[in-house]
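ESCALATION

Customer reports they have been waiting on this structure for their group meeting. Please prioritize. Original submission:
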Amino acid sequence: MKNEINKLKEAFVQASTDKEHEAIEVQMQKLIDKDPDAFAQGMVDSAKDTAEKATELAMRQKLQDIIPAVSLVYIAKTYFNKTDAWLYQRINGNTVNGKPAKFTPDEIDKLKYALDDLSKKIGSVSISL
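Update from on-call: job pushed to the front of the queue and completed.
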């Protein structure tokens, strides 16, 4: 059901006329009538997927400004004991082994800690002449 809902959501976004939108709404109503409980669960699952994607995009957007200024090699090695490729894959959501790479909740916490730690280290540096 979730796949059918996602297809209709995508079609709704791509639709450009009221007539197309109305046709999609009719198809949605047919899904509701067919199995209201499955439709409700499909909508919940679809909404969770959308929220997860939005969170990942927001994180990428926030990191976009600092990536040129910090060493991801250093962050990957020091805080994760991984390669920079591993870190880039998660930041960019690259497909790895057929699935999009993403951070686990623990890895997100570790990334937050790493950025905070680096911020404190940079903030503590004082150069005087």
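Sent to customer with the following note: The chain has a mean pLDDT of 90.
Escalation resolved.
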